[in-house]
Design a protein that fits this description.
By secondary structure, this protein is an alpha/beta fold. The chain has two domains: about 1-120, Response regulator (Rossmann fold, 3-Layer(aba) Sandwich); about 125-215, Orthogonal Bundle (Arc Repressor Mutant, subunit A). It contains eight helices and 14 strands. Strands 2-1-3-6-7 form a five-stranded parallel sheet, sandwiched between helices. A four-stranded antiparallel sheet has the order 8-9-10-11, covered by helices on one side. A three-stranded antiparallel sheet has the order 12-14-13. The two termini are about 25 Å apart.
């Protein structure tokens, strides 16, 4: 898999590129917005939103307009909720706030690449550990037992299942489940609490405090 790393800090970029290369990724670095937009095609972009010659959000918007299937992860020090929302709405698949661990970043890379893999359509059925989902029929079983969920509960579970093992930010869930109206964090928490009760295994949906939720894969 080929990754375009858009980062103007040479020290940070060097460390990230080295770590990603050791994990088997082919990494190209771009230090500016112009270089990012002129780079060769890739499978995924790790995009700093603060660049010396332009706004990374606009770079994200342009890349998304060019390729709807391209994986884009914003990697930035902008940690405010409004910044996350803007980045996701401009086309980023995920949002990682500095500082972060390479283990977390790789988990997010794997999740995004799985979802955007070569433009293939998402599977109609998803199996994650004891959870089985038929996305088209909107059916769920857990440990072989059918579970009746509301529309929002199902959509939250589907959002988590499509990125199984990775932390899904609150903002990503809101965009997946409430794309036009939005929702307060408390609303998401209430629906997740109800989802946990219904699936009968509360540890399946794990809370990552201050970030979002993760669907356990084992």
């Amino acid at each position: 898999m080929r990754i375009l790393l858009v980062e103007d800090d040479a020290r940070v970029a060097g460390a990230m590129a080295s770590a990603l290369s050791r994990r088997g990724y082919d990494v190209e670095r771009a230090a500016t917005a112009a270089a990012a937009l002129a780079a060769a095609p890739c499978d995924l972009v790790l995009l700093d939103l603060t660049l010396p010659d332009g706004d990374g959000v606009e770079v994200c918007r342009t890349l998304r307009q060019r390729n709807a299937q391209l994986g884009i992860i914003a990697v930035t020090a902008r940690g405010e909720e409004r910044d996350r929302i803007v980045g996701l709405r401009m086309g980023a698949d995920d949002y990682v706030v500095k500082p972060f661990s390479m283990a977390e970043l790789e988990a997010r890379i794997v999740a995004v690449l799985r979802r955007t893999n070569s433009g293939l359509p998402r599977p109609e059925t998803i199996e994650v550990g004891p959870v089985w989902i038929d996305a088209a029929a909107r059916l769920v079983t857990v440990h072989g037992r059918a579970v009746a969920l509301t529309r929002k509960e199902f959509d939250i579970l589907l959002s988590l299942a499509r990125q199984a093992g990775a932390v899904v930010p609150h903002e990503r869930i809101v965009l997946d489940v409430w794309p036009t109206t939005g929702a307060a964090r408390h609303t998401v928490e209430v629906h997740v609490g109800s989802l946990r009760t219904k699936i009968g295994d509360p540890d399946l949906v794990q809370t990552v405090r201050g970030v979002g939720y993760r669907l356990r894969t084992e």
